[in-house]
Amino acid sequence: MNRRDLLRWQLSGLTLMATGSTASHALASAPKKKGGGADFVQMPLLTVFTKARGGKHGTLTVEVGLDTNKNEKLAETLSKSVPRLRDAYVARLQAYAMGLTASSLIDLDYLTRELQTATDAIIKQKGVKVLLGSVVLA
């Protein structure tokens, strides 16, 4: 490829990027649909480390959603408490993960109970249900 062909190729790429940015701007200005509805709060992905042999470590990754059972006021309170909830969840998950190895089976009932207990302690109201999405041990 000579320099002229390379220059044409780069200019055509810039043209596509310029036209694509206006289309993406139009899509970004449209209101985004929230997954799960107005009464559902999706927590950011939680990742903690596990012990392994030879000084290496693995990871435990958990997706958590919180359902307020159609109580939008509770959902608003819940969304304001996300940093505190995330801190409590990570602390409980890390304590659990320290006993895991790469071949361990994860007790989902135990994880759900622990996260539900942390949620009830922070929110101090009934009506929030902890839902686990995916749980990956790698």
Keywords for this entry:
single chain, 138 residues, alpha+beta, 4-stranded antiparallel sheet, 21% strand, flat
How would you portray this structure in words?
The chain is an alpha+beta fold. Helix content is 49%, strand content 21%. The chain has helices at residues 3-29, 72-80, 82-97, 108-123; strands spanning 40-42, 46-51, 57-67, 129-137. Strands 1, 2, 3 and 4 form a four-stranded antiparallel β-sheet that branches. The radius of gyration is 22 Å and the shape is flat. The model has no long low-confidence stretch (mean pLDDT 81).
Overall 3D geometry?
A: flat
Main sheet attributes: strand count, strand direction, barrel closure: 4 strands, antiparallel
Number of E-state strands: 4
Q: Beta-strand percentage?
A: 15-25%
What structural class is derived from the secondary structure elements? alpha+beta
Count of alpha and pi helical runs: 4
Terminal CA distance reads 44 Å
Question: Percent range for helical residues?
Answer: 40-55%
Rg computed from alpha carbons, rounded to a whole number of angstroms? 22 Å
SSE succession = HEEEHHHE
Given as residue ranges, the uncertain stretches (5+ residues, pLDDT < 50) are none
Mean of pLDDT: 81
